[in-house]
Amino acid sequence: MSIATTLKNSTSIAIGGFDGMHIGHQELFHHLDQNGVIVVINTGYANLTPNHFREKHTEHLIHYYDLDDIRHLDGAGFVSLLKDDFPKLQKIVVGYDFHFGKDRRYSYEDLKELFDGEVLVVDEVQHHNDSVHSHKIRHKLSIGDIKGANEFLGHNYTICGKKITGQGIGAKELVATINIEAKEFLVPKEGVYVTTTRIDDEEHFHPSVSFVGHRVSTDGSFAIESHILDGKVLCEEKAEISFIAYIRENKKFESIDELRDAIKKDIAIANRELQRLEL
User: Fold this and answer.
1) Is 214 found in the same domain as 102?
2) Cβ distance 111 to 119 under 8 Å?
């Protein structure tokens, strides 16, 4: 079925920004019909699952509106747009804090008045008595609370980027790493992490240990680099790094030997954690 046909035949949609595609967002998606569509209002500020990376976390089709293209619409104009794009629309699913229209002046209460079908409002989703929001996930990542962020997300936080050339001393004096540039994504707190890494278009992720931050012990430049633990892997174009646990802070070592010893300890910790998780 073509995308156009799916949109034409869809009877239910969920509307939101959906950066992160976290467990709160997934609760909205659970209320969609089989042919339901996720409608993303793309603000340009998404950095947990920017752009089409959201599609990795749902089986539903995603339809995008750029905020700049619709921000001028009043409530009736927005609902009219939805009816034009989804002519068989019967149900709209939104969160309790949903706002829309010019200057975000309309809420789900207005939507109920303007739309002649069902408007289903999903209450606040909590995890361990803490409300789940994208801004809280960003905070957890900024302090290195990877496990907490992943619990809110419902999946391991993952960044993707193109392969770039590293400083050149890793394979010669330390360990071989794959270096990436991931400008679209929020990068976690500087430090060393237990990770898994997907290379190019491979289907599986490799066990890995990754470093994020400034290379304070060598050239001082910022880097995102991953060392693959299950053998040498050739990366041609891109890599995805999924973060599992925080190992240690970024710190300066006085010699290459000290740095090498620290990396050996990082690798041992990563191997133990990955074996514990059976990854």
Assistant:
1) no
2) yes
Global pTM exceeds 0.90: yes
Closest CA to 13 of 113, 81, 103, 101: 81
| 13 domain residue, yes or no | yes
192 with 240, same domain: the answer is yes
The shares of helix, strand and coil residues in the chain, as percent rounded to the nearest 5, are 30, 30, 40
Q: What's 262's domain CATH number?
A: 2.40.30.30
Domain count, the chain: 2
Q: Is there a single domain that holds both residue 163 and residue 111?
A: no
Q: For residues 69 and 21, state if they share a domain.
A: yes
Inter-residue contact 224 to 212 (CB < 8 Å): yes
Co-location of 81 and 160 in the same domain: no
Same domain assignment for residues 171 and 117: no
Q: What is the pLDDT along the chain (279 residues), one digit of tens a residue?
A: 678 887 888 999 999 999 999 999 999 999 999 999 999 999 989 999 999 999 999 999 999 999 999 999 999 999 999 999 999 999 999 999 999 988 889 999 999 999 999 999 999 999 999 999 999 999 999 999 999 999 999 999 999 999 998 766 655 567 899 999 999 999 999 999 999 999 999 999 999 999 999 998 888 899 999 999 998 888 999 999 999 999 999 999 888 889 989 999 999 999 999 998 875
